[in-house]
């Protein structure tokens, strides 16, 4: 590897290490603040499990965890990690969150973290969550939370960046979505996570990454302020807001 390439490789690794740190912070908040809230730790379901961060934390506390994701590739990664870490109480299924193949009232807790922005029909998913939750069961919803202005500017860019992106939500959208679908909000946590813009754009095909970064840097000042955009060396970093809501099945 030539010197220039190795420098670039190190730069990429550094950006992804920072991403790992953010994901770890989100897992720690979940473990320290959310898990202690549950009184029944038998069976939990993690929807849109991805590479399994939430499921692995659940597995430390629940007797049984069921993890579903629509993408076989994500499930494979999570399954390999679980095997490597000798975690035996997680079952993985390829399944669409809009059509859960579980009987009514199966789970004490359902979690959906960083996945709702991918769903075609979040109301349908919430209906399914409500159906599979036991009476008085808990639903934990965690995702980005932006203002209407930020959504108007950022969503079109996110759609180009990631083809399965569907939409962002405001805080009021989340309240509405939960309360009008028979969930009672009990506790709300909010925090920010840093994200390097170059790494955020790196999920897009290589030939459009530069354009995505430039478009991001051209968002309005108001949105940059909301995202607390700052520069550190040659990296641009945003601090995006996360909302994590613990709600209870209501009737
Ligand atoms: C950012 S990842 C989620 C990360 C994970 N929940 C965590 O806590 O680390 C979003 C996941 O949602 C999954 N997903 C998107 N649409 C879905 C659907 N309709 N049903 C199930 N999973 C879906 C994607 O395949 C992806 O793995």
Question: Secondary-structure blueprint of this entry?
Answer:
Elements: H1 3-34, E1 43-47, H2 53-61, E2 64-69, H3 72-84, E3 90-94, E4 107-113, H4 122-132, E5 133-144, H5 148-161, H6 171-179, E6 183-196, H7 197-201, H8 206-217, H9 221-226, E7 230-232, E8 235-249
Parallel strand pairs: 1-2, 1-4, 2-3, 4-5
Antiparallel strand pairs: 5-8, 6-8, 7-8
S-adenosylmethionine (SAM) binds at residues 48-50, 53-54, 68-71, 74, 96-98, 113-115, 118-119.
In a nutshell, what does this entry contain?
The protein has nine helices and eight strands. Helices cover 44% and strands 27% of the residues. It starts with a helix and ends with a strand.
Structure description:
The chain has 251 residues and is of the alpha/beta class. It has one domain (3-148, 163-193, 242-249): Vaccinia Virus protein VP39 (Rossmann fold, 3-Layer(aba) Sandwich). Helix content is 44%, strand content 27%. The protein has 9 helices and 8 strands. The protein has helices at 3-34, 53-61, 72-84, 122-132, 148-161, 171-179, 197-201, 206-217, 221-226; strands at 43-47, 64-69, 90-94, 107-113, 133-144, 183-196, 230-232, 235-249. Strands 1, 2, 3, 4, 5, 6, 7 and 8 form an 8-stranded mixed β-sheet that branches. α1 (3-34) packs parallel to α2 (53-61) and α5 (148-161) packs antiparallel against α8 (206-217). The mean pLDDT is 94.
């Amino acid at each position: 590897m030539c010197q220039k390439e190795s420098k670039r490789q190190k730069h990429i690794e550094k950006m992804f290490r920072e991403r790992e740190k953010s994901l770890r912070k989100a897992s720690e908040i979940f473990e320290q603040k959310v898990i202690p809230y549950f009184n029944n730790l038998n069976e939990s379901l993690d929807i849109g499990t991805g590479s399994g961060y939430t499921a692995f934390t659940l597995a430390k506390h629940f007797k049984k965890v069921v993890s579903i994701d629509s993408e076989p590739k994500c499930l494979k990664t999570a399954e390999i990690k679980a095997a490597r870490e000798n975690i035996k109480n997680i079952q993985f299924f390829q399944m669409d969150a809009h059509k859960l193949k579980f009987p009514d009232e199966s789970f004490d807790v359902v979690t959906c973290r960083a996945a709702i922005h991918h769903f075609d029909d979040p109301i349908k998913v919430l209906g399914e969550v409500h159906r599979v939750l036991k009476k008085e069961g808990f639903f934990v919803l965690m995702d980005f939370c932006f203002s209407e202005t930020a959504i108007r500017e950022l969503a079109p860019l996110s759609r180009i960046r990631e083809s399965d992106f569907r939409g962002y939500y405001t805080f009021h959208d989340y309240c509405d979505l939960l309360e009008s679908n028979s969930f009672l909000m009990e506790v709300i946590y909010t925090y920010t996570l840093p994200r390097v813009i170059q790494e955020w754009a790196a999920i897009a095909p290589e030939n459009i990454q530069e354009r995505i970064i430039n478009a991001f840097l051209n968002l309005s000042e108001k949105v940059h302020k909301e995202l607390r955009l700052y520069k550190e060396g040659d990296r641009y970093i945003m601090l995006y807001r996360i909302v994590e809501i613990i709600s209870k099945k209501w009737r």
